[in-house]
Amino acid sequence: MKRTILFSLKFLTILLFVGILFAYAMFQGGFVSWFLFFGSLPIFLYMALLLIYPISNIKIERNIKQNIIEAGNDVKIEIVFKRNPLFPLYYCIIEDIMPDSIGYRDTKHKKFKYLSKPDALKEKQGAKKVIFPWLKRTFSFVYTLKHVPRGEHVLNQLRIVVGDFTGTVKKEKIFNVESKLQVFPAKRKVTLHKTAASFEEGVSNSLNRTINNTTVVAGVRNYAPGDRVAWIDWKASARKNEMMTKEFEQEKSQDMLLLFDATSYENMNWLAFEGAIELGNALLNSLHGEAARLMFTSFGATRETFAINHDISSNQNVLKYLTSLRPQASLPFAKALKQEVSLLQRGYSLMIITTNFSRELYDVLLELKLKSPRVVLFLVKDLTSFSKEEQDLFKRLKNYGIILNIITEEKLIHQSFEVNA
C-alpha cells in the first residue's frame, strides 16, 4: 500500500512538472518557451520510464576470495553487477550490508589495550560504491573488509539504489545474497611455566606431584623447589650453567581437564570474553602434546565436552566450536562448576578459564582442590575492575595451593606471554 502511494505521488509529480512547462509554453509562446518544454521532455520521459523499471531484474553476486581466515586478518570481497542493457541507468549505488557479528575491528592482540573500554572498538563496517552503468551489461568492484573479528559470519544482504539525474526518482531494493565467512580465533603463543603450589604464606613451595614411576626419563626441565636431589641431571646442569631436573614420563604426561566459562552475566565485558577464547585456544595447543589425556568442557547454554586426541579432526572440532562460541544466559558458572565436582574423576589436573569471579566460585574452587592434585585458575579481566574483596580472596586461593593467573591487558597486548600452570 505504501509503495503504491509513493509510486502515485512520484508519477503525479512528473506529470505536474510537464503540465507546468506545457502551460508556460502555451501562454508565453515563442521559441524559448517551446524549446524549454521539448528540451526537458526527454528528462521527464526518462524519469517516468525509470519509475516503472523493474529493478528486480538486476542480478547481483558476492564472491569472497577466501572464506576461512584467522581473526584480525583482512579479506577481499568482489561484488558483480549484471543486468539487461536495454535501459540506461544514470547512477547506481551498491551497498554491502554487514551482519551484527562484524561489529568491530579486530586488531589482534593490539585490541586489548581497550579492555577497560571495549566499546571504543565498535565500528560498523561495509562497502558502498557509486557506479554509472549507463548501458553497461556487467560491472564489478573489489573491496577489502579489514580486521575481521572471530565468528561464523553470514553476509546475506546487498542494497541497490538507482536514480535519475535530478534525484526526484529513486528506487531501492535489498537483494538476499548469502555468503559465509568463517573466522577462527587468533593464534597466540602461551608459555606454560611449571610453577610450584604454595600452601601457606612463609612456607617453602611444594610441587603437588605423585610419581609412581621414576625410571623412564622423558626429558629435562628447570629445577623447582621440592624436587629430589636424585632427580638432578648434573650433565645438563653443567651444560646450561643452571640447575636442571630430570622429567619423568608420568610427570610429563598428566591428565588435564580444561573448563571454560561461556555463560553471560550482567555488565559482561565482551572483549574480555574474546581474550578468554584466545587464551583457551592457546592453552589447548600448548597442552596437546603434553597431557596424556586432554579434555575440554564448556559451560554455556549447554554443557559441551571434547576429547582432544592426537588426530587433526578432534582439534578441528574444538576450533570450530570456539569460532562460533558466544556467551549465553544459563546457570551461573559457579553453580555449573559445583555440579561438575561430583562427576570429576580423581587425578585430573584442572585449568579453569573465566571472566567473572565471585565468592561462590571461590567456594567451588576449594571443593575442586580436594579432588584434584592441581587446580589452575585463569581470570581474564581489566585492571580497573578488581574489588578489595576479590583481592583478599585471591590471596586465600594461593594459600590453599590454587594457582592463580590474572590475565589483564598488560599481558594480552603481547602476542606471546607466560602463565603459571
How would you portray this structure in words?
- This protein has 421 residues and is of the alpha/beta class.
- Helices cover 31% and strands 29% of the residues.
- It is built from ten helices and 18 strands.
- Strands 14-13-12-15-16-17 form a six-stranded mixed sheet, sandwiched between helices.
- It is elongated and about 115 Å long.
- About 5% of the residues have low confidence.
Low-confidence stretches: 197-215
Q: Which structural class should the secondary elements be placed in?
A: alpha/beta
Strands in their spatial order, largest beta sheet: 14-13-12-15-16-17
The oligomeric state of the chains shown is single chain
Characterize the largest beta sheet: strand count, sense, and whether it forms a barrel. Answer: 6 strands, mixed
Q: Bin the helical content.
A: 25-40%
Order of helices and strands: HHEEEEEEEEEEHEHEHEEHHEHEHEHE
Helical region count? 10
Assign an overall shape: elongated
What is the end-to-end distance? 66 Å
**Which value, in Å, is the CA radius of gyration?**
32 Å
Strand content: 25-35%
Provide the residue-averaged pLDDT: 85
What is the number of strand segments?
18
